[in-house]
TrEMBL record:
Name recorded for this polypeptide: Uncharacterized protein
A Pfam cross-reference name: DUF229
Lineage, uppermost ranks: Eukaryota, Metazoa, Spiralia, Lophotrochozoa, Mollusca
InterPro entries assigned: Alkaline_phosphatase_core_sf, DUF229
Signal sequence range: none
GO CC annotation: extracellular space
Organism: Candidula unifasciata
Amino acid sequence: MNISDGAPLVSDFFNISCWDSRNKSYENIHAGIHVNNTIRERLRANKPPANGLGLSIALLGFDSMSRMSWLRRMPRTREFLVKELKAIELEGYNILGDGTPAALFPILTGKLEQELPEARRKFKGAKPVDDFPWLWRNFSKYGYVTSWADSQIAIAPFNYRLLGFEHSPADYFMRPFYLAADPLYKTFSPHCHGSEPRHMVWFNWIRDIFYMYKDDPKFLVHFYTALSHDDNNLITMADDDLRTLLYNLENGGFLNNTLLIVMADHGARFDTVRRTLSGKIEERMPYVSLRFPRWFEIKYPHLIKNIRTNVHRLTTPFDLHETFKDFLRFDGAGKGDVKNRGISLFKEIPKSRTCAHADVAPHWCACLKWQSVPETDPNARRALQTALEALNNFTEPYRSDCALLSIGNITTLSKMFASDEVLKFKRTKDDRGLRPVMSDRFTKVDKIIYQLTFFTQPGDGEFEITLEHVLASNVMQLNSKSISRINKYGNDPACVLNKNREIRQYCYCKSNLL
């Protein structure tokens, strides 16, 4: 069809071709926001609940950025967030598992992947993720415009291992754009979409939703992978542009009724920094910031006070889920119940909260203390053997493709250390959780938790594994969710990617030995 400058869009995504008198001179795929009359009618018919908090939510997520990495690599954006927008940064935010789905499922569904219906590729009974209890539905029901935008086809959070969405989960869904654009990226310069940086397409789509629905409530979830997944250094090229986007949204009044969350899913998982102690902590503690409009802080000072108190408390993705639910039905602030694995950030999170309370497995908990164990320790050797057997068991059904692994260099052997204060702690005797009651006796230790880091041969795979030695039964227990591959596997598992992507971390193809 022929269109002219300024014409209304008839689709969110479209291909533009231009010709001069002799030849085609331009062709590219563009993204925009087509105002949908069906959405408009739903917004008119459904309004946010009266007992909600009256704010939109815009979550802008970035892959593999720890809090410290964000400070190092996004200084201008961070300065604008903290100094100009007065954003609050959560310094005790701890991940729940490995990879992006482990970060997003608890936020958007309130559940861990293993608690949701089977959706893994090649697994019996697996179905697309459409029927998961997504928050988009809750907000859509109450008159919110909704969106979901990731940024890469090959490693999209809900598509790489999982079957993804069969239908759009939100009013605006960016995956069709990237499906159409992906073949063109082979012809463009790296990180470019034609003549503009690829991240600007994603930034501009966020801007356009705000522009087209300025006065409507919104629940927007956008996650950008391309620049930081493999190398945190590259995201620096987006620092000025992200700051400009946030400046323009604030200056244009688009954030007056919006909770803005800028965050990451986890820290870097594979680079050389990950092999250090600080890198290990950084993987488990991603960047998270929350910015509320000034009027909200004035109207609800007690809520903001609780959030500021929670800056230094243990928080997780489950807490963000509970916080988002408060926007639709707020039942008051007060103090959170430590027995709940998710606590709204509008409630004060008890200082006594532990990873066990928050359903953070020991493998992922950044709060634990560890002490070194010598390689000669017989239980440490048993733990190593148990870990190796687990790795090989994953690939056993594909032994014709995957090599049998053996242990190479051992980097660290450690076991969890509990201080006397922890072992003697009984409870707190004040409602703020500040005054401990201590016992004269030590709590009986029923299991010892080991953490191991080692290389495997062939292939030099590097793994970090946490397992439990149950003392009563003298059994070593290992959960597959407590295994991290901490260096890149590259093409090592190419022979099984079309058979079972779940074992990609563990398989070294025999064909690589030829």
